[in-house]
Write a structure and sequence with these properties.
mainly alpha, Helix Hairpins, single chain, 61% helix, two-stranded antiparallel sheet
């Protein structure tokens, strides 16, 4: 399995959806289910982090008085 932190949002979300479906069906032996669940938690946390980063970028869009996006301001300032 790849390192979760290197996955794109869409890839991580698709894998998380597959994990949830498999666990809901009960197709997975107990020991493997625990490992799969742990991977699912890591994927969920990674997706949430990527969404937070995207939201921070969106929040930093600078609008002109006319409401037109002009650029990004640094959220570090």
């Amino acid at each position: 399995m790849n390192d979760v932190s290197t996955l794109a949002f869409e890839t991580a979300l698709a894998e998380l959806e597959r994990i949830v479906a498999a666990l809901e069906r009960g197709d997975v032996p107990l020991a493997q289910a625990v490992e799969t669940y742990e991977r699912g938690i890591a994927l969920k946390n990674h997706c949430e982090g990527l969404l937070r980063q995207a939201q921070m970028r969106i929040d930093q869009v600078v609008l002109t008085p006319a409401g037109v996006a002009e650029g990004l301001s640094s959220f570090e300032s």
